[in-house]
Specification:
This protein is of the alpha+beta class and 84 residues long. It is built from 2 helices and 5 strands; from the N terminus they run βββββαα. Strand 4 and strand 5 form a beta hairpin.
Length: 84
């Protein structure tokens, strides 16, 4: 199955590969970025780019990925409100 965006907020996307695996990526300026510090990577925005930046080991179950997504979005809003 292909990569599908389940949710997006700020610059973050919660994605699935359709096989029960989920991940969070960041999308900016036509590129996608991994949030995994062990797999720091960027690729052109699109289905293959999202698959590439997640890699084979960046996938999680739904609850873990949803929690990561929530924390990323909440942190982004916090810094926007307090730094600017």
């Amino acid at each position: 199955m292909g990569i599908r965006i389940i949710d997006s907020d700020e610059t973050y996307r919660l994605i699935t590969d359709g096989d029960g695996r989920y991940a969070v990526v960041e999308a900016r300026c036509g590129h996608v970025y991994s949030l995994d510090c062990h797999h720091a990577h960027q690729a052109p925005d699109g289905e293959e780019g999202m698959r590439e930046v997640v890699g084979e080991h960046g996938w999680n179950d739904y609850p873990a990925a949803r929690d990561c997504f929530r924390k990323a979005v909440t942190g982004e809003r916090y810094y926007k409100e307090h730094l600017w």
